[in-house]
């Protein structure tokens, strides 16, 4: 089964990737590694979630935000793979950042939504190493930002 067919089965339509708004690029390819810049929960051209987890954002909503970030990573990856997601050899690493209150310790549960999606879409190739870090703020007051390293052929 192709990655595109899997996305279709999961009911996922990849968005048009968002262009960077500062002095950086959406992804960099060096050799067979693609580094994808941090993706935020943009959906249909707008922020799907804002706020701080443990205060104005629930763990469930933060998990939904993480899943949106993962979809946006896959959209950027598709561009990096010149439209062919079957070129993905391995999702190497996800770096998850959670905008949360002091004392919040459930960052891994939030970022699990992104990890689960990578495995659902890419199977064994989607299993990756990961960081799940709490922070006191993120750009545009989003609750989650996730970046990725991916090996492609």
UniProtKB/TrEMBL annotation:
Residues 5-142 form the Endoribonuclease L-PSP/chorismate mutase-like domain. It holds the Pfam family YjgF_endoribonc. It comes from Kordiimonas pumila. This is RidA family protein. It comes from the Bacteria.
């Amino acid at each position: 089964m192709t990655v595109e067919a899997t996305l279709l089965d999961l009911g996922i339509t990849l968005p048009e990737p968002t262009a960077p708004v500062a002095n950086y690029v959406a992804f960099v390819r060096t050799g067979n590694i693609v580094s994808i810049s941090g993706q935020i929960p943009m959906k249909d051209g707008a922020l799907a979630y804002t706020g701080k987890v443990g205060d104005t954002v629930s763990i469930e909503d933060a998990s939904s935000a993480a899943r949106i970030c993962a979809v946006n990573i896959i959209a950027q990856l598709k561009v990096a793979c010149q439209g062919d997601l079957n070129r993905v050899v391995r999702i190497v690493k996800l770096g998850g950042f959670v905008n949360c209150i002091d004392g919040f310790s459930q960052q891994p549960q939030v970022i699990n939504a992104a990890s689960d999606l990578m495995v659902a879409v890419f199977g064994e190739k989607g299993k990756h190493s990961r960081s799940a870090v709490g922070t006191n703020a993120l750009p545009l007051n989003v609750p989650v930002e996730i970046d990725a390293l991916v090996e492609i052929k």
